[in-house]
Amino acid sequence: MKMSIHSRQISRRSILAGAAALGLTSTLAACGGSDDDSGESSGPVKLTYWSWAPNMEKVAAIWNKKNPDITVTVSKQASGGEIVSKLITAKKAGNAPDLIQVEYQSLPTLVSNDVLADISKYVGDAKSEFSDGLWQMVTLGSDAVYSVPQDSAPLMFYYREDLFKKHGLSVPKTWTEFAEVARASKKAVPDAYLTTFSSNDPGLFAGLAQQAGGKWWTVDGGGKWTVGIDDAATKKVAEFWGGLVQEGVIDNQPMYTPPWNNALNKGTHLAWVSAVWAPGVLISSAPDTKGKWRMAPLPQWKAGDNVTGSWGGSSTGVSTDSKHAEAAAKFARWINTDPEALAALVKEVAIYPAATKGQSGDVLTTPEFFSNQKDFYTTAAEIAATTAASAWGPNVQTAYTAFQDNFGKATKAKKETQFLSALGTMQSKTFGDMKKQGFEVAEA
Length: 444
Hints:
Blueprint: H1 12-21, H2 33-36, E1 45-51, H3 56-66, E2 70-76, H4 81-93, E3 99-103, H5 107-112, H6 120-123, H7 132-139, E4 148-151, E5 155-160, H8 161-166, H9 175-188, H10 202-212, E6 217-219, E7 225-227, H11 232-247, H12 258-266, E8 271-275, H13 278-285, E9 293-297, E10 314-318, H14 325-337, H15 339-349, H16 376-384, H17 396-413, H18 416-437, E11 441-443
Helix pairs in contact: 3-15, 10-11, 11-18, 14-15, 17-18
């Protein structure tokens, strides 16, 4: 099952329309100038690459050794909203870096602020290297290509294999079965929970909505956006989790805290809905549970379906300020598709490659926490191929902040109705912010 990121094809002009109304971009006729006029010179080219990933300079060094005429220098940056704000400021000053590490959810924000160039004429034929869902994330449903996928973060179901066997629990294949297992595990171990609903990281909730078919932002060919965060699919997700929290069979504690770590380590949380990067977290959060976990596909809303959401992941884009767009795009393609580069990304940067050919091979050794599951990465690749495209918009951070504030209160209250009202507030705040920014926007 694959979902289109938008209901219809859109253009760069339509994405820029809302920002142009506020004077955030240059004239529409000039938008994306650097991708139409690469400005390539005959001499050596020096490119700057903003990235927050550790050891990215080691990967760039492989390129530099092979391409002395195109040198890439990595400039370490903060991630998340901080790098987005810094990039927009740099663009206004006309000195954005040539290359940018971009989270998928940040793409519409950077495109609407004319930070990212359309590099389709340089990398458009790389589409076959990636799953359809991931490729749609970097095209925003258009004929343009705003970045090359770098890492993938498909959602999966992690569970304590030993405890499931001990208590006679079955691995859920549907969310209905998940609820049944939550009740059964609570009955078997009264002081434990199957897992928790956490309000401190909206990325997981967004990925669950993505799997369910949620389309939080859509835009038509004329540049009119629609905000549908409280659509039927996302309401279903909020109601489901809110109901289990209210019932008392799912915990309401936030992730990444000492109590959460302790629950994973002691087995009072028997499972965790997470992404492919979860083994790295378990090493530090639950050190006593090595070899006791197993991974399975995410439960489905309908028996027989095969789709997952994602939680994280990033790509490599080229800025509209770059005077060497073709050379920068060549590097962006190389680092995310070349076998040697993919192996270096896995070894040095510890990412799970977005390129399908990078999701197998000797470099992807079985995670030490999953020594009992030798097919970990084979299964992960099969799951990654089912990743649905996300429908991101230009003010993701506003939506995420609203999630943390309002779902935080709902989670503490343990009221299903408050989960739904929190979703409504998330919708209204996101819509209101877009309207305030000058976007032509409607509610679904």
